[in-house]
Amino acid sequence: MNWGPWADAGHAASEYGKQSHERLRALGIKAIAPDDGLRVLGALMEQGRTQAAAVDVDWPQLFRADPAAARLGLLAERVQDAAASEIADSSQPSELVAALRALPPDGAGRLSFFICRS
Q1: Residue 76 or residue 41, greater confidence
Q2: Whole-angstrom Cα distance, residue 10 to residue 23?
Q3: Could you report the per-residue pLDDT of 66-90, keeping only the tens digit for each?
Q4: ∠ CA(18), CA(22), CA(23), 5° rounding?
Q5: Residue 80 region by backbone torsions, left for phi larger than 0, else alpha for psi between -120 and 50, else beta
Q6: Alpha helices, DSSP H only, in the chain?
Q7: What are the percentages of helix, strand and coil residues in the chain, rounded to 5?
Q8: Average pLDDT, the chain
Q9: What pLDDT does residue 112 have?
Q10: By C-alpha distance, which of 82, 86, 50 is closest to 69?
Q11: How far from 1 is each of 4, 35, 45, 54, 72, CA to CA, in Å?
Q12: DSSP category for residue 87
């Protein structure tokens, strides 16, 4: 399991960790609340996934702050999703947008969740 930064404990609770999280937040990468992370971990364990990543990212903000990240092949789908989210049109929502809208409003839906495939 690959995780984005976690909030409220360990490194995140140290002064250095708080400063690091501020820098990440400026890039659009937010800390994962422990309860949200545990829900994601539980869902992954139930699904029997062997490799996955969970991170709370504002993709358009990340790609504006770090244009080089938008050129990484691993993030190609996220670049397309970010570009699509910034286009204000009346077309039907993408499959991703529809899936995200269907998530519960308890906050866990903020987490980007993608499976790394070989």
Answers
A1: 41
A2: 17
A3: 888 888 877 777 777 777 666 444 4
A4: 120
A5: alpha
A6: 15-27, 34-47, 59-65, 76-85, 95-101
A7: 55, 15, 30
A8: 76
A9: 55
A10: 82
A11: 10, 16, 10, 8, 20
A12: S
Check the CA dihedral 53-111-81-83 and report its sign.
negative
State residue 85's pLDDT score: 66
Q: Determine the distance from the C-alpha atom of residue 92 to the mean position of all C-alpha atoms in its chain, rounded to a whole number.
A: 23
What is this structure's pTM? 0.64
How far apart CA 54 and CA 72 sit, in angstroms, is: 18
Write down the pLDDT at residue 118: 31
Structure tokens that stand for 29 in this block: 């990468």
Whose tokens are 């495939």? That residue is 117
Structure-token match 């399991």, residue found: 1
Is residue 116 within 8 A of residue 93, CB to CB? The reply is no
Domains and their CATH numbers in the chain: 2-115 (3.40.50.720)
